Amino acid sequence: MKKLRELILRVLTTHAAWPILICVGLLCMVSVLAIELASKPGEGFADRQRLFVGVGAAIVILTLIPNFQSIGQGSYVFFGIGLVMLVAVFFTQSVNGARRWFQTPIGFSLQPSEFAKITYVMALAWYLRYHRNIRELSGLLPPFLLMLIPFVLILMEPDLGTALLFPLVLYAMLIAAGAKLRHLIVIAVVTALALPGAYPFLKPYQQERITSLVVSISGQGGEEHRMGVGYQPYQARIALGSGGITGQGPEGAQHIKQGLLPEAHTDFIYAVVGTQWGFVGCVGILLLYLGFFAASVEIAATCRDPFGRLLVIGLSSLVVFQVVINVGMTVGIFPVVGIALPFVSYGGSSLLTNMVAAGLLLNVSVRRQANAAPAIGVR
Amino acid sequence: MLNRRLIILFVLFAGAMAGLALRLGQLQISEAEKWQAEARTFVHRHTPIETARGSIVDRNGVIVAQDVHCYDLAIDYRAMNRDDRWITRTARQRLRERDVVERKEILEQLPREKELVANLLLGIPEAIRQQCGISREEVRARFNEIHTRISLLRQDRWSRVYSRNKDREDGVSVADADLKNEIKEETVSHTVVPNIRDGVANYFRQHAGEYPGLVVVDSQRRDYPYKDVACHLIGVMRPIDKAWLDRERLGRNLFDLPNLLTEEDTGNLGGYLPGDRAGEMGIEALEEKKLRGVRGVKLMELGSADAERRIEPRQGGHVQMTLDIKLQEAIEKAVMEPSGKLRMGADNQTHAVAIVVLDMEGRVLVMYSSSTYDLNLYDEQRVELNTNTEEMPLINRALSAAYPPGSTIKPLVAAAALSEGLVRAQETITCNGHLFANRKDQFRCLRYVNYGLTHGPLPLSQAMEVSCNIYFYTLGQRLGLERFLTWLDVFSLGRDTGFELRTGNVDGNIPSREVLQDASTAAAESLQLGIGQGRLAVTPLQMANAYATMLRGGEEIAPRILASTPEVRTKRAVISPATVAALREGMELVVHGEKGTARTVFAGMKMRVAGKTGSAMTGRKMRVQGLRVDGDSDAWFVGYVPADKPQYVISAVMEFGGHGGSNAAPMVRETVVQMENFGYLPKVD
Prior knowledge:
Strand content of chain A: under 5%
Helix content of chain B: 40-55%
Number of strands of chain A: 2
Largest interface: A-B, 64 and 51 residues
Oligomer: heterodimer
Helix content of chain A: 55-70%
Structural class of chain B: alpha+beta
Radius of gyration of chain A: 21 Å
Largest sheet of chain B: 5 strands, mixed
Shape of chain A: globular
Largest sheet of chain A: 2 strands, antiparallel
Strand order of the largest sheet of chain A: 1-2
Distance between the termini of chain A: 39 Å
Number of helices of chain B: 25
């Protein structure tokens, strides 16, 4: 107990930890308010989100307790467990045509891909911490293989959005780990060129969402399009746009209240933020995430341990990539993929995963100087 | 080095967010107004307000067709298709109603509930069959019909999207993509059984839980309180379908909601929605536009109870007939009485009959044609009615069946000959039994044929009284075919009289002018026409109209059934009052003269009737129990009442009835009696 109090005290006296706490705290508040707006009376989403936030706070404290380096020792084991779960999920009942959840006997459902995200970042960080060979093109092969396994498994669920996060996070971590930018750019260009070739392998509804995006960006979506495939993103833009500069437009509020935007409280929560607090609120939220990332950079830069450094960058990029994809989808420049807005979207699995990430960040931040492991990482 | 890498990452993310912020600025600052307007259109709902079809009333304002409230049994389109998403939603809803709200419980019970709902859906056709008493095939047929309707609607929606987009290069592909979308009609209920009994409605309301997707809805149906009386005139309604829309060229006349928010889109509230009904025959079809009415629309903000703006529906207009429905009902009742006395032909069989009563201004007071059918049951009996070739109940014989007029044409022939100065009323023409001295086997008088007797010299009035053929062969001979044809035209025989309703385009038949080319055929034809035979066939309405024209001295007033139709007078010839008087004298003798052909039928009647009998040989075959046999003559009586001051012309025909005097005249007598009862004729003591 004494140790715990000491730990919390250390978090509160660590200057890089403060922005993390403030950003996450504010985002959670926005979350509860927005979910309240987006749900009908009696649905109780906001109350449950409050509960999740409370549980999340506890999880943050719990993740503080073990030394991040000792957690790192178990990285591969955790990663292995994650993969096993990803395979096991194929043997569950399909929900709406996808197998993504485990139903636990105590009521809530568990999403193994959420667990896999964290263990994947840990494993990558653990692998990359001492490997100088990543400056060679051939040295990039193992981390890419490490990425491909969960990527393919999640793609098969199917969950395109979540799967996409894995290569993106790998890129961010390779940049931070010191892989040659030249190599990374070449790989990025090759991947970009190869992407259209992947299109025929997508599910019809995924293809539909991409064509729909093209149709609506090029301004060709007629009314019928808006009432069909393009309905959800279109309603999101209506909600967002009608918020104006400072928000609170009566039309938009009514629009949200009448439930015209499907999934307003989960994936499209950002549109609710836009309706309610307008451009100012929307940009404010983006700044909170940027602040979150800036604080992580600060932690990473001052961390003496290469594993801690990479872990921090991996976890925070994971969060920010989700933000970019989710917001991009809400403002109508990305296709609709099921990616939640971290800390804000309704949902226990997603919030708790992000809380674990935040907890690990704080864990690193309070121990970054103390763990004076020889910094023979990439220099 | 390391820090530089971290800065690169930070800059990348900051750049991405800046990009997002730019897009946000576009949406929320420069386009804010546009999106606010869009939001407005989405939080508002346009709802059509139903209108009511106008009534049809008779000359006294008695309602003969009206919209009345009823219940329809309807099914959700998705329930009909056992749509999986719908079943899931319904199952969830049912769980919620049972207070199963815990996520865990819902997940646990949902599969079972879904299975239950799916099973209940399977039982729906059987329930409809049991409760509504329609066959399983019929239920399936109705489901199919709904499918067809929706696909028609989809097609229409598609073609509209297509036409809107076709100017753009990729318009077609956009429209193709849109085809996949659900249209509103696929998410609402559609009527399966219209007009269900109250008990059935109650049953389905009480057992709603057992039949998910099945609902009882308030509706309207067309009610015909007089059932089969004047059925041919009133007409019936039918649900619109693609063929009908095409035929009426109403393709562009489909219902379209106007946008009350922008006021740019005026819509088409008067248009047709799939499932609408429209007049198929009779006045329902003739006055469709006037009766139909225009739907209204209201603009509601979601979540509020009051309409923000509304356009009131316009009720359909009422249509008034010149007919007296109660008089017609009385006449029909008398004709249809079980003994069948009035429908009995010379062969002691009952036959189809038609009766028309016109007033002197051309208004139809009675138009009866047997057989009739109950308008309220038309939908159920449609096939039967359309395939009954023996009675052909859908045919309005007063209007759409043509018969040779026989001797009833004689007053008209006399009118022509007198007006042309070819005969004088007092001039006698001698009947030797046959027209040509050397041919005793043709152009004979009936008295000669039947009894070997002759009429001797006859003036016009007596020739009419006894219906002497020789006299009228002679007049036909004197007139010649060319003049004859001119006079047929004066009386609008064998052509459109201008009557509003035209069913089947039957205008009768007259010899074509080409016959004139051949002098001997023309001469023979004019002889035959003199006694109303030959190539001549006319409708009962045409005969009534011709007599009225004659009585008015040659002035025709187009017969009409709608009170709103203006009077159209045409005068193609002048028949002098002296001529009319001579003709009337002859027609009075037919009824009241000692030798009058209709004397016995009208004996003892205080009201004086005048007219002419006719027994026209037909040459047509008669259908009896599926066999075609030679028919007796068509029996006619055309006359007017009262004899001294004509107010109404009555034309009656009995198909294959035999003899005009004994088989058609009784119907006219009955008609006159009923007209007296209803006060149309002055009381005579």
